[in-house]
Structures are given as C-alpha cells and as structure tokens.
Amino acid sequence: MDRYDVIVIGGGISGTSLAHACARAGLSVLVAEKTDAPGGCIHSHRLESGYWFELGAHTCYNSYRALLEALESKNALDKLLPRAKVPFRLLSNGKVRSIASELSLLSLLAHVPSILFASKEGRTVRDYYEPLVGRGNYERVFGPLFAAVPSQSADEFPSDMLFKKRERRKELPRSFTLTGGLQTVVDVLLDAPKLTLLLNAEAVAIERQAEQFVVRFADGSEHRGRFLAMAIPPNAGARLLKPGFPALADALSHIQVTRLSSIGVALPRRATPLEPLAFLIPLDQRFYSAVSRDTVPDPTYRAFAFHLKPELSLDEGLRLICQTLHTDREQLEHVVQRHVELPSPRLGHPGIVREIDQAIAGQPLFVTGNYFGGLAIEDCVLRSNAEAARLLKAAGAAA
Ligand SMILES: Cc1cc2nc3c(=O)[nH]c(=O)nc-3n(C[C@H](O)[C@H](O)[C@H](O)COP(=O)(O)OP(=O)(O)OC[C@H]3O[C@@H](n4cnc5c(N)ncnc54)[C@H](O)[C@@H]3O)c2cc1C
C-alpha cells in the first residue's frame, strides 16, 4: 500500500487541476481514474496519423483565466490553437439552415424591451429567456440551442449557471483548442514529478484510519492519503461517502445527474456534402448536437461527435449520423462511443453547494467538480483552485 499526501478520486479536469495545484506546491499526489484514460468529459480521440477529434468538450475561451494560468505555469501557452471561424447551423426538416432564418424577427423585436427589466436571479433558463425572445422563438430555436450547451434540456437550469460573463485575456485567441486536442490540457497538468496517475482504478470504498484516508479500489488494492479530494460525479461521490460522511453524501445525492451517450465518427472529406460548420443543432431535438472538427480543418478527414439521448443504441445512433451527414456506414472509417455523466442543476442549487461546503468545513476532505459554479471547464478549475488553497492551508504547504 502506497502513501500520498493527497489522493484525488477522478481524473477529469476537476481532479487534474486540483492535483496540479497540490503537486505544484510540493505535495505528493495520486490521481485515481476509473477508466483507461484521464480526461472524463474531455476526451480527444487520437489516431496514429496524428489526426484527432473530440468526443466531449471542444472549446476553451480566452476568458478561462484560471485554466490559462495553470497552462502558463507549465509553459504550455504555445500549444494553444485558435479555432477557425465556421458557422453554427440548425437542422430543420432535414435541411441545414442559419439561426436567423429560423427565428421570427417580429416576435424577437416585440420582446426586446423586456431585457431592460430582466434579472437572472432565482429564474430558470426558460423563465428568463422566454419573455426576452418570445414563446415561439424559445420553443422552436432557443430551447434546442441552449440544450446543445449542457447536452440535455437546459429549460430548468438556473439561468445564472448556463452562461457567464468573464474577463478576457485579449492577447490570446478568443476561442481555442490545443495541439492534439483539448485532452492536451489534462496531459500537461498531469505531467509533474510528484504526481502519480493510476488508470483503471475505480475507487469502491473509503475509510478513515489513524488520521489517514484508506481508499480501496475495485481490484482489491488500497492506497493511503493524508488528504482526500473527490472529483467524480455527485451520485458516484454520494455512494462512496455514505458510510463515513453521511451529511455530505446526503447533500450530493440531491443533485440530479444525466447520462449522455456520444458517438464520434471520422470520414474522408469527400464522403459528406455538408458545408463546413462548427455545430449542427437539430430543431426536432432528435439529438442534442453534432460538434465538428471543421474548426481545425484537415486536408483529408472530417469528424463529428454526435451527442445523443442515452436510450439510442449504437446502431440507431449510426443510422441517424449517416442520415444527417448524407453518407454511408462504410465511409465511417473511425467510430468511437462514450458515455459520461453530467449534473442537471435546478433552482435552489446554491443551497446544496452550501450544504456540501458546511459538511466538509474543517475536514481533511475536499470536493470539486462541474456542479459548483457551473459546468464549464473554467468553473471546474476555479472550484479546484479554491479547494486546493484550502487543502494547502491545512497542509501548511506553500501555495
Ligand atoms: C459533450 C460535452 C461537451 C462539452 N463542451 C464543453 C466545452 O466546449 N467547453 C467547456 O468549457 N466545457 C464543456 N463541457 C463541460 C465540461 O467538459 C465538463 O463539465 C468538465 O470537463 C467536467 O469535468 P469533471 O472533472 O468535473 O468531471 P468528469 O469529466 O466527469 O470527470 C470525472 C472523472 O471521474 C471518474 N470516476 C467516476 N467514478 C470514479 C471512481 N469511483 N473512481 C475513480 N474514478 C472515477 C470518471 O471516469 C471521470 O473520468 C462539455 C461537456 C460535455 C459532456
């Protein structure tokens, strides 16, 4: 059994950014990830040829200051790759259309004055935006557009959690990925001398013994840590924490979780007639979105990640994809399927976050994830930085 200063359960951006901050301050850190690769919702599928495409997150912005600061500390800003400007498109009755062409401008203009009185506080996305754009526009266009952001209906999300205004670093590209895809963020942050990554390591039990955490894994192995950080979806965290930390587990169990199924496909450029685009969002919501690799154009390949409703089988998904891309199954040279879990915050979410923070106050236990400020990568890094600062204070280590 190995001993570390910190054990981080979960190798997504929340876990890796927290681990990076702790390792940077000189602590020994173990990141335990249940699957065979770190990244979680960040997953760049890489081919031997060097071509890659995203199965999950795809875009970072120059307003992601906490993320950029972490990358800068690893001298990795030279890996930033600006995204090419290609349009968003809607899919309406099988036809690719612009957003403007699907909106009722009359209704939009009639509702614009209500923006003067709008406040996001205590309102859902639907409650806030429907009066601003008109009911028809919301139902038909904005509802599906907003659902494409968290890959689930956003109607009941607290409106202040979906989009955030953040200060930009104007010397950097407005929106970017990295060479090798967004997964490079995770690779860079995990590359530290005092940081160990354990893959295929599903934590199944947590115990507190003699001022230490003992984490047991599915293969029967155990590791010890002075501090423990949870960076896994709230439902998984609740299950693990229930025996030792029931109040925390109870708070986590109040956060709804949605399962998302994504299929990524790469095909020769000539195999689809679709115009270059960044996203394709179907108005009939048969899927949430198709995210393309056209933002980093390639002379040979194009690739798309379709974010689907979880009940679709691989076969049904591929049929839908071929129909949308106007192509045949034989043209799909690479097909990858992935499932992730995402939080579905509701009004009253800040109360749950307060309960979580109360349950861990003064404990050697830390909780991060995409269910604090919001789901964006930057929200994860901000929460991880705050928890790392609390941990380093408890450890008496230099920040
Ligand atoms: C399709 C999609 C597109 C997105 N696009 C963007 C975007 O463009 N820009 C943006 O800012 N954000 C985007 N997001 C949101 C953002 O990517 C996620 O919210 C964020 O990456 C979540 O990171 P996380 O570390 O909190 O959780 P996760 O990424 O879910 O990581 C949790 C990790 O914990 C592991 N785990 C679970 N249980 C255990 C266990 N018992 N033991 C060990 N490990 C365990 C999981 O395997 C997983 O790797 C997108 C999300 C999705 C799904």
Characterization of the model:
The chain has 399 residues and is α/β, with parallel strands linked by helices. The two termini are 28 Å apart. It contains 12 helices and 19 strands. It is 30% helix and 26% strand. Strands 1, 2, 10, 11, 12, 13 and 19 form a 7-stranded mixed beta sheet that branches. It has a 7-stranded mixed beta sheet with strand order 8-7-15-16-17-14-18, with helices on both faces. Helix 1 links the parallel strand 1 and strand 2. It binds flavin-adenine dinucleotide (FAD). The site of flavin-adenine dinucleotide (FAD) has 37 residues, from helix 1, strand 14, strand 18 and helix 12.
Counted by DSSP, the helix tally is 12
* Strands, total number: 19
Strand count, sense and barrel status of the largest sheet are: 7 strands, mixed
Poorly predicted parts: none
Span of the ends, CA to CA? 28 Å
Corresponding CATH architecture of the largest domain: 3-Layer(bba) Sandwich
Strand content: 25-35%
Structural class: alpha/beta
CATH class wording of the largest domain: Alpha Beta
**Would you give the CATH topology of the largest domain?**
FAD/NAD(P)-binding domain
| Average pLDDT, all residues | 95
Shape: globular
Rg calc: 22 Å
* Percentage of residues in helical conformation: 25-40%
List the bound ligands. Answer: flavin-adenine dinucleotide
CATH H level, superfamily name of the largest domain: FAD/NAD(P)-binding domain
- How many separate structural domains? 3
